[in-house]
Specification:
Layout lengths: L8 H19 L8 H12 L5 H12 L4 H22 L9 E2 L2 E2 L1 H4 L2 H20 L7 H15 L4 H10 L7 H26 L7 H27 L2 H4 L5 H4 L5 H23 L9 H12 L3
Antiparallel strand pairs: 1-2
C-alpha cells in the first residue's frame, strides 16, 4: 500500500476514504433476519458519502507514530460510526429537523424516525465495541484509553453537552465565549479525539509531550473546522453543502459569522489553522500531510 505521507493531500484523502469505507463495510456487514432493516439503516448512515476527515486524522497520526494501519483503520471506522450516529440524531425533527444529508435523504426520511433513532443508538455502541475488541490492540490499556477518551469526547462534557448548549441558545444572542465553548464541545471534541486516538493507539502516554502536541493540533483543527462551517453555512449553496444551507440564520443561532462577520471569521479560521500547524513544528517532514490538512479544513467548499 502506498505511504500516504508521500501522496498529495487530495490523493491521500481519496485513498483513506476508500480504505475506511472498506473497513466500515467489513465491520458492519448486512445480516438476514428481523434486525436486517436496522443494519441497513446503520449502513446507510455510515456509508452514505462523507469525506472521512475524522477517520483520516486517526490514520495519519497513527502512521506518524508507527501504529499498525489495520488497527488504525478499525479506530477510524469507530470514530466514523460515532460521527454518523451524531448526524442521524442531529437531523431528526426534534433536533435540527433536516431532510438532507450529504446530498441524500436523511436517515429518518429514508427509513423512519424510529429506525433512525435505533440506528444512531446502535452506531454509537458499535463505535465502542470496535475499540474494545482485541483486534484493535492486544494491549488492554490502550483499548481502555481509546474508549475512555471517546466517551469523554462524545458525552455530556463533549459532543452531546455541546448540542444541549446549541439547543438552548436558539433565538438568543450568545457571547463569543459561549459560542466558542459550544463548538469546542459539539464539533471540536470529536475532531480532537480523532487526532489523539492515533497517538493513543501507538502507545503514547497522556504525559508524553508528543501526545500533548497532537491534542493541541486537534483542538485548533476542530475549532477551525467549525469556523469554516459557519462561513459555508452563510456563503455556500445547499447543492454545494449536501445539506440545507442557512440553517443557523433560520434558527436564529449565534455563530462565528454572526459575531465576527464573514471577514472576521475567515481571519479567525486562518489564525487557528496556523496555530494548528505550529503545534506540529517538532515532527518534521513526516507531518507535512497534517499541515496541509490544517489548510484544507479552512479552504474547503463543503
Amino acid at each position: 500500500m502506498t505511504d500516504s505521507h508521500a501522496l498529495p493531500l487530495k490523493d491521500a484523502l481519496r485513498q483513506a476514504c476508500r480504505d475506511i469505507e472498506a473497513s466500515i463495510d467489513a465491520l458492519l456487514p448486512p445480516v438476514p433476519g428481523d434486525e436486517s432493516l436496522l443494519i441497513e439503516a446503520m449502513r446507510y448512515a455510515a456509508l452514505n458519502g462523507g469525506k472521512r476527515l475524522r477517520g483520516f486524522l486517526v490514520l495519519e497520526i497513527a502512521a506518524l507514530f508507527g501504529a499498525p494501519r489495520e488497527a488504525a483503520l478499525r479506530v477510524a471506522a469507530s470514530v466514523e460510526f460515532l460521527h454518523a450516529y451524531s448526524l442521524v440524531h442531529d437531523d431528526l425533527p426534534a433536533m435540527d429537523d433536516d431532510d438532507l444529508r450529504r446530498g441524500q435523504p436523511s436517515t429518518h426520511k429514508k427509513f423512519n424516525e424510529a429506525f433512525a433513532i435505533l440506528a444512531g443508538d446502535a452506531l454509537q455502541t458499535s463505535a465502542f465495541e470496535v475499540l474494545l475488541e482485541e483486534a484493535t490492540s492486544k494491549d488492554p490499556a490502550i483499548r481502555a484509553d481509546l474508549a475512555l477518551a471517546l466517551a469523554r469526547a462524545s458525552g455530556s462534557a463533549g459532543m452531546v453537552g455541546g448540542q444541549v448548549i446549541d439547543i438552548r441558545g436558539e433565538g438568543k444572542a450568545l457571547p463569543l465565549e459561549k459560542v466558542q465553548r459550544l463548538h469546542a464541545m459539539k464539533t471540536g471534541a470529536l475532531i480532537r479525539y480523532a487526532a489523539e486516538a492515533g497517538a493513543i493507539l501507538a502507545g503514547l502516554k497522556a504525559d508524553d509531550p508528543r501526545r500533548e502536541a497532537i491534542i493541541r493540533y486537534g483542538t485548533d483543527l476542530g475549532t477551525a473546522f467549525q469556523v469554516a462551517d459557519d462561513i459555508l453555512d452563510t456563503t455556500a449553496s445547499t447543492e454545494e453543502l449536501g445539506k440545507t444551507a442557512g440553517k443557523d440564520e433560520d434558527a436564529c443561532k449565534s455563530n462565528y459569522v454572526s459575531l465576527l462577520g464573514i471577514e472576521g471569521a475567515r481571519k479567525e479560521a486562518q489564525r487557528l489553522s496556523e496555530q494548528a500547524r505550529q503545534s506540529l513544528s517538532s515532527f518534521g517532514p513526516q507531518a507535512e500531510t497534517l499541515r496541509a490538512l490544517a489548510d484544507y479544513f479552512v479552504e474547503r467548499r463543503n
